[in-house]
């Protein structure tokens, strides 16, 4: 009888013991204070819009009274904010908005001065959004498609000029990828200090063409200030269905996009990562959230997993490293 009672007591205690062990591993409760969501760029851009929208909707899904605060830590191509999150405790209270700059182009171009490993030093949580990089030409350009532009560049090596929002930007690497994919066409790259100056340069026809995320170009293209002639996405974009993709233009395998991912310091507990992923996915599936992001040229991603996010970031970093090596780029910070 005593043995039977002890066995029953052990069975009844087992679930509580398991929950206690799990709680001990993760802390008494999570989140037990404010979750800081770091955006490694200034306020006001498309990345900032996405992060604030997601944070506002995610907080109630993490538990009663949970709070998420967006913090902008800009500088050095996003590496200052990224390094800050890397050095925080991996307890789920510090997360980062990663981009092609922070976890692609800058580490690929400046591996010796980037203060973190973009893969090994972070925990992948979720892909939040993606947007194609678009090829634009001035409104008075004779080129109506990528084939025409590339043919002109081949016939006039070194005589053309093109712009991006800065050396090492995702638009810069997309332009280098086009040159490589088109057999090494040559044109002078003019790095502007951001998307707005590039838009102005295209409007004034200061360059023959430019590469920039669709979100920065959509309004000007709709207003006729310049013309979009190519998309870096594998399929045509619903905002501009008349614009062919670079793959359709004959550049096999060409894909260039900007993206936003949610990351944390390495070593985060899997259960917390899963909760963050589930909450982010739920927010990004909300129709009004998807519609608002679409107006900014961002395609919400609501079906990523931590594993698929890790694979995606690793693949993008490898792609940028390959472009840097093939184009023989070497930029000093």
UniProtKB/TrEMBL annotation:
Keyword Signal: yes
Stretch forming the signal peptide: 1-21
Pfam families, sorted: TctC (PF03401)
Matches recorded under CDD domains: PBP2_Bug_TTT
Keywords linked to the UniProt accession: Signal
UniProt keyword annotation of rRNA-binding present: no
Family classification: Belongs to the UPF0065 (bug) family.
Protein name per UniProt: Tripartite tricarboxylate transporter substrate binding protein
Organism encoding this protein: Falsiroseomonas selenitidurans
């Amino acid at each position: 009888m005593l043995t039977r009672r002890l066995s029953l007591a052990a069975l009844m205690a087992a679930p509580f013991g398991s929950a206690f062990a799990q709680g001990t591993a993760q802390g008494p409760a999570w989140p037990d204070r404010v979750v800081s969501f770091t955006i490694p760029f200034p306020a006001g851009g498309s990345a900032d819009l996405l992060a604030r929208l997601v944070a506002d909707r995610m907080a109630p899904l993490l538990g009663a009274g949970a709070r998420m605060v967006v913090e902008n830590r800009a500088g050095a191509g996003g590496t200052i904010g990224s390094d800050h999150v890397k050095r925080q405790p991996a307890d789920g209270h510090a997360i980062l908005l990663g981009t092609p700059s922070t976890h692609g182009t800058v580490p690929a171009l400046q591996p010796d001065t980037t203060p973190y490993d973009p893969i090994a030093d972070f925990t992948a949580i979720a892909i939040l959004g993606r947007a194609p990089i678009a090829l634009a030409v001035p409104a008075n350009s004779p080129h109506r498609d990528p084939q025409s532009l590339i043919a002109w560049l081949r016939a006039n090596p070194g005589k053309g000029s093109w712009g991006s929002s800065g050396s090492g930007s995702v638009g810069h690497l997309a332009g280098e990828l086009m040159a490589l994919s088109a057999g090494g066409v040559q044109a002078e790259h003019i790095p502007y200090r951001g998307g707005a100056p590039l838009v102005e340069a295209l409007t004034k026809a200061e360059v023959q063409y430019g590469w920039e995320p669709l979100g920065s170009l959509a309004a000007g293209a709709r207003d006729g200030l310049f013309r979009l002639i190519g998309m870096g996405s594998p399929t045509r974009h619903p905002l501009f269905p008349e614009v062919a993709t670079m793959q359709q233009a004959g550049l096999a395998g060409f894909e260039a996009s900007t993206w936003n991912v949610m990351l944390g310091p390495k070593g985060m507990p899997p259960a917390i990562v899963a909760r963050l992923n589930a909450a982010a996915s739920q927010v990004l599936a909300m129709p009004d959230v998807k519609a608002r992001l679409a107006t900014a040229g961002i395609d919400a991603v609501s079906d990523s997993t931590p594993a698929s996010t890790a694979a995606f970031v690793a693949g993008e970093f490898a792609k940028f490293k390959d472009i840097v090596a093939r184009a023989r780029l070497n930029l000093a910070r």
